[in-house]
Design goal:
By secondary structure, the protein is mainly alpha-helical. The chain has helices at residues 2-32, 35-70, 74-102, 107-136.
């Protein structure tokens, strides 16, 4: 049961990253017409996404930490590494990069840095989800 809940949390985390970053925010900029207004909405969406990342990441860390304590195997430690990497990207993006973007401070530097961090977070959660799904597949 706990493994299924963890799988659902990983799917929710990756799915929300995909939806916000690759669907909703681009639509905001395409449909609103005013980049400043779209940017403010996007910032609020990314902040909400950061809270989703923190919640899902912490719960998944607790889950995989317990699994690593039960049996020190590679998959649990790899999952912990992926979760920590994704959480680090989410926290750095929210508290180090996003304030600079919202202040319009050197956008040519900070926007690509934030985009890269978001993409790394998306990759980490995608790999985590893929590995968790593969572990549940009957052989």
């Amino acid at each position: 049961m706990k493994d299924r809940v963890a799988l659902m949390l990983a799917a929710f985390w990756w799915g929300s990253l995909s939806t916000v970053g690759f669907l909703v925010v681009p639509m905001l900029f395409a449909k609103l017409g005013n980049p400043s207004v779209a940017g403010n909405f996007a910032g609020q969406l990314f902040e909400a996404q950061s809270w989703i990342a923190i919640a899902c990441g912490l719960i998944l860390l607790i889950h995989f930490r317990a699994k690593a304590d039960e049996r020190m195997d590679g998959p649990a430690l790899t999952a912990i590494f992926l979760i920590l990497g994704a959480l680090l990207m989410a926290l750095l993006q929210q508290y180090a990069v996003a304030p600079r973007i919202m202040a319009r401070e050197n956008l040519k530097l900070w926007h690509p840095v934030g985009t890269g961090m978001y993409f790394v977070q998306w990759i980490c959660t995608g790999v985590l989800l893929w590995r968790m799904g593969a572990a549940r597949t009957p052989r």
